[in-house]
Specification:
This protein is mostly helical. The chain has one helix at about 5-95. It holds the Pfam family Remorin_C. It comes from Gossypium australe. Keywords: Coiled coil, Signal.
């Protein structure tokens, strides 16, 4: 039959081939994992870029809204100032002439 030396040598060859296959599978697995991790990193970077662009866009919108609000406030303040000036002029006119307005507030 077979000698012990032949069986030991055959067993060593078989173990060596099995080890090579396992190493090959491990290398394949590591390569695939690295590719997936690289793809994931690219996707994350793309999403971060999109997020930053969207944040900038929203900040610009907020600044535009603030600017519009300030303009509207300025218009209201200017109108208020004009109305106050008109009221003061009218009051001065009535005081100078000694008359009272036709429409009096809170009187009987």
């Amino acid at each position: 039959m077979f000698s012990g030396c032949f069986l030991t040598q055959s067993l060593l060859i078989w173990l060596s081939r099995a080890q090579k296959k396992l190493s090959s599978i491990t290398a394949w697995e590591n390569t695939k994992k690295a590719a997936i991790e690289a793809k994931l990193k690219r996707i994350e970077e793309k999403l971060e870029k999109q997020k930053a662009e969207y944040v900038e866009k929203m900040k610009n919108k907020a600044a535009l809204i603030h600017k519009e609000a300030e303009e509207k406030k300025a218009i209201v303040e200017a109108k208020r100032g004009e109305d106050l000036l008109k009221a003061e002029e009218l009051a001065a006119k009535y005081r100078a002439t000694g008359t009272t307005p036709n429409k009096t507030l809170g009187c009987c």
